């Protein structure tokens, strides 16, 4: 469908963007093998030492597990709440709907310090001890908007006629939602949840104010970077984390329907009868 | 069709919001403001310490197994932390802020029931004390204290009305660090930081307290201003210093906010001279970078640190064990040599020489009285000058000037 | 456009028409009373949000109308507008606000320009396996810690770093990019890029091929199709991505501290340096991003990004 010249240009663009995206990542991995604590270019040697340090470091393991736990819970809660808000705002008109959009985006728009200090004061006031619960609460506040944004963009492009047709064909409310609407928004939901998890997994500032003495992985990294005495260990930890997340991200990508057939003209022509272009086959 | 809900929503939302705001406006500032009097009769006169009457620990009991510390970088090296953990079973868990302001923030709400102690500097200590975030300390439980130089036993920045809120730790200068590649002979004056010759190669501390460094410079070079204490500046003096730093701004390559950031800048050739801590000097020379440091003729600002005890410390026994341990001569020496600072314990000198020959003299651990006077230790600028007049510029204005005029 | 018959519809037909069980009664009730459904949907998130976040934020922001006692730096509850006038009246603060907004806008535009062709290729041209591969590639950098990535850029931009080394090989003199606003800008563009690609991809992915073919059947060449059909359909995705890039830049202050120079102070830095000693001023400064985001959302709505098709 697209002219050949455009396809070639796009391919080149994609390659360039990938190069740009991964150069810093490659640097991080390369410097995990560097011996020196003060990192300069070029690399001054090669050693596995820091990987050994990272592997045996109990604090890192605990921090990593805590980050995963918090991320899953926060993304899960945000998924539920974000979907609820998206559906409500999409389907109903009422006073204050736009205000809600603004309220939801505030945790991202405001510097983390403000959110952090506000929540810290709240927890002190309500006598809630700082711990895993408070970390999760803090993270959900900015994860909701990520799910909401992704989902509502998708909903706004979903024709209402689908739902109405389904009802015309005799499906009950929940059946329409489950069998017709849900697959339409699968990509948006999964990508929203993924981004929310990623943001939670990597968040530092709000977490500083809500974590108390617990260390999530970013907090541990933050501390190490300020100390500056075990910098290559940070690189080693990040390298291990990237390797560990390849599989889950791959699975999530499949789930999001990224592997579904492309709705090209060729595909539509050959599947001429009722099947929608690739939507139901994922 | 869906507008039926409009009216109901309006009502519900309005009620909810109004109720919430009314409730909160009432208890509004209580959780965010520092408690206590708002008398305007002077900086600390008339202020009371909220926690002054808390009972101190009478006897050190069994350790709780953990200790949560807020410390400056380099203060918790494995060299002396591991033996402590083995001896007492108190496992140390730490965070490392970059500025004194961050110390104050972390100690809010008495340490939040999370943090046990903070190794804060003189410009943060009184803030912490008057905010009610520090707990009185029973100095009799700390034998090393008796061996301290008298001037550090009950200094005004951690002892109020005879009540100690922490135990003094160590102290040191903000040095002039330079790359030996750029300076064949060591610089002797801070003027290299204000000179166009080194434009684009200068690195200075990113914090309003750095204004005091400018004041030290003008104290020496412009006596007509009459600056005596770099932390107590009248408005005209303050403005002169601000103008000096404004002039410096285009020459500065890096305002460093964390020690590793400055280390990286020096190591990678981005800067060749700057205001620094002994920590960076030690770190770079240990990695064999050609770096030197001096205290120039104008003198220097510096800091004296205290291990403050948090009002809501969850592990008080471990906290006292730490205070005892860190005040002993041997550990004081280890920390002093490792970081490059001066210990408060008079008996640390010989131990320092055992670790690194000549270090006792190098860090002035044996002659602090004269040396002490050349260093202007960090303290919070308040409006009440020492001469009783209320026209000195308070810290809030330092922050404002730093953000709006200098940077 | 064609619709696949839902798998469950055939089996549901007998029960669906006249079910009387409690579930179908509840379902029917919710269908008839839209406000009940809206309330049911909205109460948990709103309650969460209002009680926890907005309440604590309101408490904090109210202090913007108070002042601090310059002697004790305690907060005094004397209502006035001093802080707000200071923020808007001091030229330095105005400059900081403009710099932050400018940077946020610039980052958004650049990220959109970079992301759209990439997402288009991913969504419409790439084969399924390539698409999965690209999806994973875009997401992976998110798992390399923000701080580690910024430090990697430090290594790239620094005087004896990777960039100057590479440029030196082709004979270009050393660039002095470290600790400048340019460095901060590039790092922001880099870090937020995945947050722009994913929503745009999600939007482009679902554009039915039939609509594009129709455009071509009507005589539209590539550029025209892109301009009149694809971009408008992708607009909600672009806007969603831009909300992320814009607001994340608006609130960030770590990158300026690590990579920026003396002129890189952003709104977040001002708030960060005032939050301890002068909370009212920090709170006043915090109202600025709120106002900006409100304007941004209004502008997006005016551009029709939130309209239904």
Task: Tell me about this structure.
The complex is a heterotrimer of chains A (282), B (407) and C (309). By secondary structure, chain A is an all-alpha fold. Chain A has 12 helices and no strands. In chain A, α3 (58-91) packs across α10 (217-227). Chain B has helices at residues 4-26, 78-88, 100-106, 122-130, 150-153, 211-221, 235-248, 259-267, 278-286, 316-326, 329-339, 348-355, 359-362, 368-374, 395-406, and strands spanning 66-70, 91-95, 117-121, 159-160, 163-164, 166-173, 175-179, 202-205, 252-256, 273-276, 291-294, 300-309, 342-343, 375-377. In chain B, α3 runs parallel beside α4 (122-130) and α7 (235-248) packs parallel to α15. The longest helix of chain B is centred in the first third of the chain and has 23 residues, at 4-26. Chain B starts with a helix and ends with a helix. Chain C is mainly alpha-helical and 309 residues long. Helix content of chain C is 74%, strand content 1%. Chain C has helices at 7-18, 22-32, 34-62, 82-89, 91-125, 128-139, 146-157, 162-169, 181-205, 209-217, 222-251, 254-259, 267-274, 279-302, and strands spanning 67-68, 75-76. In chain C, β1 and β2 (75-76) form a beta hairpin. The longest helix of chain C is centred in the middle third of the chain and has 35 residues, at 91-125. Chain C is flat. The model of chain C is unreliable at 1-18 (pLDDT under 50). The chains are: A mainly alpha (282), B alpha/beta (407), C mainly alpha (309). The interface between A and B is medium-sized, with 30 and 36 residues.
